[in-house]
Specification:
Blueprint lengths: L2 H15 L14 E5 L6 H13 L9 E5 L6 H9 L6 E3 L4 H4 L37 H11 L15 H11 L3
Parallel strand pairs: 1-2, 1-3
Length: 178
């Protein structure tokens, strides 16, 4: 559905890379809405707006990107709106890791399959680590030791580190715990 949007933006960037003039462009002919499913001023909003600032020079004269923050429902509302948009290249969305997490949590009817990725300006890696002197070198070894000794492991998740929830899910599925 949104593959047309992805192809269209790729087309704009490809034309720009060969220094096409505005007269040669057939897309876009009108402003492009960019849904930012987060609050203004945060990391996703800032990354999206910086990206748009850079990309605007590749648009034909008179055409602009129109960023719209849609943070309702922790961004789900904006994701749904983007997924349901007409696939004409006039609506883009800046998404985050929640796109992969929310469907598994029953919070969103849309997932990554509703979109075509164009570019990833944000890297937000997370990992499960142990002390360098620990005898465990893999998650499997750690889980096996926990099962054998019935040790209690705690995985605190800071409120602002939602991407770590996926680590908790991996741990739970590996260990059989909740």
């Amino acid at each position: 559905m949104l593959k047309a949007i992805g192809l269209a933006l790729c087309g704009v960037l490809a034309l720009a890379s060969v220094q096409a003039t505005a007269q040669e462009l057939t897309y876009p002919e009108k402003n492009i809405t960019v849904i930012i499913p987060k609050n203004p001023g945060g990391g996703t909003d800032t990354s999206a707006r910086l990206t748009l600032e850079y990309a605007k020079k590749y648009l034909p004269e008179g055409v602009i990107f129109v960023p719209e923050n849609k943070p309702a429902g922790n961004g789900v509302t904006g994701l749904i709106e983007a997924a349901r948009a007409k696939p004409d290249g006039q609506t883009l969305v800046m998404t985050t890791v929640e796109l992969a997490m929310f469907p598994h949590q029953g919070k969103s009817p849309v997932n990554y399959e509703n979109f075509t990725g164009l570019y990833a300006p944000i890297a937000d890696p997370a990992s499960l680590v142990v002390n360098a002197n620990s005898p465990y070198e893999t998650l499997e070894e750690l889980v096996a030791a926990a099962k054998k000794t019935r040790a209690i492991f705690r995985l605190p998740i800071p409120a602002r580190a939602r991407s770590l929830i996926s680590l908790r899910s991996i741990w739970n599925s590996s260990s059989g715990s909740n």
